[in-house]
Specification:
Elements lengths: L2 H6 L7 E6 L6 H14 L4 E5 L6 H5 L8 E2 L6 E5 L2 H16 L5 H11 L2 H16 L6 E5 L5 H20 L7 H18 L4 E7 L3 H16 L4 E9 L8 H20 L4 E6 L8 H11 L2
Parallel strand pairs: 1-5, 1-6, 2-4, 2-5, 6-7, 7-8
Antiparallel strand pairs: 3-4
Helix pairs in contact: 2-11, 4-6, 7-8
The chain binds adenosine-5'-diphosphate and magnesium ion.
Amino acid sequence: MNRLDTIIYPLKGERKNIFFSGKGGVGKTSMACITAVQTAKNGFKTLLLTTDPAAHIGNVLDRPVTDNITPIEGIENLYAVKIDQKKATEEYKAGLLKEAEGKFDANTIMAMKEELDSPCTEEMASFQKFVDFAGNDDFEIIVVDTAPTGHTLRLLELPMDWSKQIQLKSGVATEISEGDRLQKQRFDKVIEMMKNEKETTFAFVMYPERTPIVEAHRASAELLTLGIKTQLVVANLIIPEEQAVTSFYQKRRSMQLGYIEEIKETFKASVLLQVPMLEDEIKGLDMLLEIGSIIFK
Ligand SMILES: Nc1ncnc2c1ncn2[C@@H]1O[C@H](COP(=O)(O)OP(=O)(O)O)[C@@H](O)[C@H]1O
Ligand SMILES: [Mg+2]
């Protein structure tokens, strides 16, 4: 196997998770869809999962995608799901409050309700859903289309807030329940998996321009503080050579090529994928397959 293959495909009998991160609009959703279609086409049972509240993988695949795992018609082995943050949060809150009823007095429950009205709860709820999906051993590859950078980091740091939530749930004096203990174990297992470079690949998508490179590098350094290496970088929207026929586009293209060298230098340890700027927006299984065969050759 070449190096790109080892970061996209799992070892025999194992699992591979691939996360695409980066700023808004750089091509994360497109890359996640292209990659998932490619791995499914090559015979790996693949789940494409989005944690972006503004997700549109359904549009890109041109197939319905819901918050239940759905097979994608037209590509064998491909399944997709989106985490519906709002719904996940409602379920999560209702679950916690139900558990608390009868256990605590009205004042405590009031305080809990207030405490649960925080953005932290939303992230917790999404993460819990994510853990449910990521813990699913049915799939050989899980490709994750993340929300813009920052969100993924929060996701990973969340388990540190976990103890706070448990305390909130059980009240100061009460013991941690068995259910919570089990859930914590599942959380920890997923975090372990995300930190294992053989099982999980982190990819940053960016434009070959100065600020995006600096920002991706900063985010990648932050991930490293959590013990996670960036194994893959994607330089998107490269002007094709045959299109660089006016001095304007020649100049832009040569600027991009300069920045591609900078990306190689900045992300020395990562594999670089280069994606050309296409004349159409990226949409539909045929187009995803075609781009995949070009960039993963
Ligand atoms: N290489 C490309 N060529 C042409 N259009 C692209 C390319 N990459 C992304 N796009 C378009 O740019 C827009 C943003 O891409 P998207 O994948 O949704 O970014 P993100 O998920 O990072 O916000 C989409 O309309 C997509 O079709
Ligand atoms: Mg997106």
